[in-house]
Amino acid sequence: MQTTVGISNRHIHLTKEDLQILCGIDTLEEARPLTQPGQFASTLKLTIQTPKNKIENVRVLGPTRSYTQVEISKTDAYTLGIDPPVRESGDVKGAALITILGPKGTITRDCAIIATRHIHIDHETREKLGLLDVSKVKVRLFGAKGGLIDAVSIKETNPAYFELHLDTDDGNAHLLKNGDTVEIIKE
Amino acid sequence: MQTTVGISNRHIHLTKEDLQILCGIDTLEEARPLTQPGQFASTLKLTIQTPKNKIENVRVLGPTRSYTQVEISKTDAYTLGIDPPVRESGDVKGAALITILGPKGTITRDCAIIATRHIHIDHETREKLGLLDVSKVKVRLFGAKGGLIDAVSIKETNPAYFELHLDTDDGNAHLLKNGDTVEIIKE
User: Fold this and answer.
1) Structurally, what CATH architecture does the domain formed by B118-186 represent?
2) pTM above 0.80, yes or no
3) From the candidates A75, A83, A138, A169, which should be mutated to test the interface with B, based on the most B CB atoms within 10 A?
4) Nearest chain A Cα distance for residue B16, angstroms
């Protein structure tokens, strides 16, 4: 049971209201499409900041969502001096406090997370692969620094592009590139 | 079969000759001891550089060795725009080209590697744990981003402080801290 990997660099999701506060605009302009249908990298890059440090040029993904969230790696978290929880996207309760700086305004909110490792999959593929009855799987990664990663969430959307999403720490630790093949292990 | 983990940040090993070229000195001053007997973090920090970028304040470990080597993570390798091989410490054949900048001189040499995941162990402990007949093991890592890592080298020295050494990418990807407990799995 195989799929491919997509490595997600740090990024920001914004509500329409927060986009208005930060930038004074209502919609994001597409720079390039992402693999998930309808999702795109926007032309907007913002700075994220904590009392300890800042990271510039963090890409905002589009379209706007029902929640504002900053997804970073543990390496970024050390740079910023914060301790974000590992969470599913959208589950920002108890997330780490962070400031987003825009050209028109700033937002300081507990919305920084480390994203759970997850597999995007549609219902038909999930059924075909016998994964309807599980919410987590393990995934085998190959290569000189391969291994088996635990706690990979099954994230069903319809439609979906079937793909494992990892953050840059997982990608770099295991020497993975976008498009590399991995093996899904049902527990 | 358990041990603890030690996370190694990027660092430099130098020969006495290269220390003389870079800094005009013959010996390194100890800032603090490392867990491995006789090894120490020196007071010296140098800059490593490539045509693309540089990283400052890279710690030189002591004492001086029979080889000069820069150990970095894949994340560092992307920052620097180089593609170092995964290697045992000291095996710098085919390593990536890098420049080390010192106050008195510079060295440009193919000596940058990503260190193989490895376990420091002495002969007695290795025998007791039934690991005399293997050179590689797997290691189970626990926590919210746990998993099982492959290709962990058994590195016997006498004496040794029994410990798994991982780079910062592996540490951060798996949310590990120094001293966390891990489980050795003999294949």
Assistant:
1) Beta Barrel (2.40)
2) yes
3) A169
4) 32
First vs last C-alpha separation in chain A: 13
CA-wise closest residue to B74 among B62, B82, B64: B82
Question: Which two tokens mark B171?
Answer: 């540490």
CA A30 to chain centre: 18
pLDDT digits (tens, 9 = 90+) for A80-119: 999 999 999 999 989 999 999 999 999 999 999 999 999 9
User: How far is Cα B105 from Cα B75, in angstroms, rounded to an integer?
Assistant: 27
Cα separation of A87 and B87, whole Å?
34
Which residues from B are below 8 Å from A80, CB to CB?
none
The span from the CA of B80 to the CA of B34, in Å, is: 27
Q: Cβ atoms within 10 A of the Cβ of A90, count?
A: 11
Interface test with A, best of B169, B174, B178, B183 (most A CBs within 10 A): B169
Say if residues A38 and A62 touch (Cβ distance below 8 Å).
no
Give residue limits of the domains in chain A. 10-115, 118-186
> B interface mutation test: which of A172, A180, A182 has the most B CBs within 10 A?
A172
Residue A163 backbone dihedrals phi, psi, to 5 degrees: -165, 145
Q: Is B174 left (phi over 0), alpha (psi -120 to 50) or beta?
A: alpha
**What is the pairing mode between strands B118-121 and B147-156?**
parallel
Q: For A11-63, what is each residue's pLDDT tens digit?
A: 999 999 999 999 999 999 999 999 999 999 999 999 999 999 999 999 999 99
Instruction: Quote the pLDDT of residue B187.
Output: 78
Contact (CB<8Å) B168/A117: no
User: Which residues does chain A have within 8 Å of residue B144's beta carbon, measured at their own beta carbons?
Assistant: 86, 151
Nearest residue on chain A to B139, judged by CA atoms? A147
